[in-house]
Amino acid sequence: MGMVSHFWETPATVVGMVAPPVTNPPSNVRVVDDEIAGRPRPEDLVRLSAPLRCELTAELDGTVEFADVGVEELLLAALGRAIARTIGAGVVTVSGLTTVAPIRLCCATERDLDADGLLAEVRHALTIAQHAAMPPAEVVFSFLGMPPDPALGPLEVTDGPALGVLAYRCDDEIQMDWWYDTRRLDLCTVEELAAQFRLGLIGLTSEAGAIEGAA
User: Fold this and answer.
1) In this structure, how many other beta carbons lie within 10 angstroms of the beta carbon of residue 137?
2) What is the pLDDT of residues 158-205, one digit of tens each?
3) Exposure of 21 by Cβ count < 10 A (0-12 exposed, 13-18 middle, 19+ buried)?
4) Domain spans of the chain, in order of start
5) pTM (two decimals)
6) How far is CA 53 from the centre of its chain?
């Protein structure tokens, strides 16, 4: 367990990263380093804490108001950016406590899809999720308004997904708890996902405009 610090403060981590382009139909992205069957033991589940500092949280809240998008939509879009940059482009099935049903999350770099396009994809996925059959979730993602019960994080990755992300407000920051199964995901992969999530969110909040069809 630890805090992400200087590693994910450095924009240079994205230099030279090339992810495969989004295909049509899009490919399914597996969010694992190793395929290992069976339920994890309690000691296999580890949390990486990577809060969004006050300044970035304020930027996110400002974009929510300006672009008329939801906090969860922005965070999911940033997750899609992070997966594309770290693992590869395509689609990932994401479930969560705060979504009606699992969604097919578009994972694309800026080269393939700009901020407005990615946010529109996320909104569309959230709209159609409850009407479509989905493969098993690769990631569990939940945005909560307050700190969760400490037992909630491990429960997200006890069955199925190797990665569970809990986002919630704590004081003036949005806390990000990255829970992962250490048998199937390496620490360096989760650190890079957290780093690319932050950088992706910076890009989204800087570039997003009002989404067509937003309320």
Assistant:
1) 22
2) 778 999 999 999 988 999 999 999 999 999 999 999 999 999 999 999
3) middle
4) 42-207
5) 0.83
6) 17
